[in-house]
Write a structure and sequence with these properties.
It is found in: Cell membrane. Its main location: membrane. By secondary structure, the protein is an all-alpha fold. About 75% of the residues lie in helices and about 0% in strands. The chain has one domain: MFS general substrate transporter like domains (Growth Hormone, Chain: A, Up-down Bundle). The radius of gyration is 22 Å and the shape is globular. The two termini are about 25 Å apart.
Length: about 450
């Protein structure tokens, strides 16, 4: 019997190239966490100086999220024109916008600049995660894409600490606090230079010679185009309509809705972490450090999920995770004035169990859609999620002011429970499948299944 040829891309050993690409691709999530969290500290000084009311505080807190919603549509651009080119351009825009925050004088100016920051971050999600997924070996794909989410919480934690320390500079410290995001962005632009284009994307565009050159550069002289044969059912055409066609519509709804249910309460908590902790009378006078601790708990929750995503399986992991998250936030809503230990348990449960959805947020869309619409899928599902996150972040301070922390967190519990229902009804299983197999629509998979 003829021995099946080992696929050099899917079965590759984890290499230095994979490690570097994982770090570089994690830059967008790191800056996302940093930018969305640093505003929470800066608002302490911004509110009185720019005379912001609750409405404007909510708008500025949500501005970067609105930008991420818009930037998600750039997934279509990266599918049309390539991953590598946009991989650097988006961060250059982010650097300029970060620095411009030093000179803002009104709420409107700050809103617009942070909108641009969000667009840059949102554009990076489909660019970087698609590139990473298309180079990942199947056994390490969950780990590599999951690490990018850990970078988000590292960025968030660092932002709270940096912001709290920099507040001591003076009454205008907030300008330099906001501009500080330019520093990691500059470092990442320099690191990303020279990253190769995705050979899957090149092949899908008919650029076979370039694709084979990249394969040999990364995997060695024995690599060939046979290692990235396009999956059955692949059209080669980039179109938004593909995401809503039979076979993919269910996947689009699943990723978009569970993503939205996961981040809507989460981003509101991170953006207004100090106000939320003050409502629970925790870390008064040093709420930035308290928010950093909460963010660090979310980071810790991602670590076991990275290793369970293959052992437990994608579907079971996300269902169990949403169950634990719902219980945690429900405790925070039912016992707003309860014992400190009870409140801490609620935070810990929500943060630790958030690890499952966090790991799946970029793993799922990159696995469930083919190369020609992979970036588009990441972008569109990010847009769906950020729509909920914008609403949650905008309404969170309003809810605290008008209803208090208890009812506000009960609403968050209802949203999280909705995510659990979505996962039970729609979550597929793609554990241990190659990227080609995982991205095939159900109709193609059924046609290929042998008759009983």
């Amino acid at each position: 019997m003829k021995r099946k040829r080992k696929n050099i891309v899917d079965d590759a050993e984890f290499s230095g190239f994979h490690a570097r690409l994982t770090v570089y691709s994690s830059g967008g999530p790191f800056l996302d966490g940093y930018i969305l969290s640093i505003i929470a500290i800066a608002l302490i000084q911004i509110r009185p100086q720019l005379h912001l009311n609750t409405t404007w505080s909510g708008l500025i807190g949500a501005s970067a999220l609105i930008g991420i919603f818009i930037g998600g549509f750039m997934g279509y651009v990266t599918d049309k024109f390539g991953r590598q080119l946009m991989y650097t351009i988006d961060f250059i825009v982010l650097i300029v916008a970060s620095i411009l925050q030093v000179w803002v004088q009104t709420g409107w100016e700050l809103f617009i600049i942070r909108l641009i920051l969000g667009i840059s971050v949102g554009a990076d999600y489909p660019i970087a995660t698609s590139l990473l997924a298309e180079f990942s070996p199947k056994k390490q794909r969950g780990l590599m894409l999951g690490v990018t989410l850990i970078a988000y919480y590292i960025g968030s934690t660092v932002a709270y600490i940096v912001g709290q320390v920099m507040l001591n500079i003076g009454p205008n410290a907030w300008r330099w606090i906001l501009a500080s995001s330019a520093i990691p962005a500059v470092i990442l632009v320099l690191l990303r230079m020279g990253t190769p284009e995705s050979p899957r994307w090149l092949l899908q565009k008919g650029r076979k010679t370039e694709a084979e050159k990249v394969l040999k550069q990364v995997y060695g002289p024995t690599a060939s185009l046979q290692d990235i044969v396009m999956p059955d059912g692949s059209t080669g055409k980039t179109s938004y309509f593909t995401l809503f066609m039979p076979g993919y519509l269910k996947r689009t709804l699943y990723v978009g809705l569970f993503y939205m249910a996961a981040v809507a309460p989460l981003f509101a908590m991170l953006t207004f972490g100090p106000e939320m902790l003050a409502s629970y009378h925790l870390f008064e006078g040093a709420s930035g450090y308290g928010a950093a601790i909460i963010s660090a708990l979310f980071l810790i929750g991602c670590i076991p999920a990275l290793f369970l995503v293959n052992r437990m399986g994608r579907r079971m992991l996300i269902i169990v995770s949403f169950t634990g998250m719902t219980v945690g936030v429900l405790i925070l809503g039912l016992f707003p004035h309860g014992p400190l230990a009870m409140i801490f348990v609620g935070f810990v449960l929500y943060a630790i169990f958030s690890g499952g959805p966090n790991v799946m947020e970029w793993l799922a869309p990159n696995e469930l859609f083919p190369t020609e619409v992979r970036g588009t899928a990441v972008g569109i599902t990010t847009c769906i999620s950020r729509f909920g996150a914008v609403i949650g972040t905008y309404l969170f301070p309003w809810g605290l002011e008008n209803f208090g922390i208890g009812p506000t967190m009960l609403v968050a519990a209802a949203v999280t429970f909705g995510g659990l229902i979505v996962c039970v009804l729609l979550a597929p299983e793609t554990t241990n499948k190659t990227l080609n197999a995982a991205s095939q629509p159900e109709s193609v998979s059924r046609r290929k299944s042998p008759a009983p």
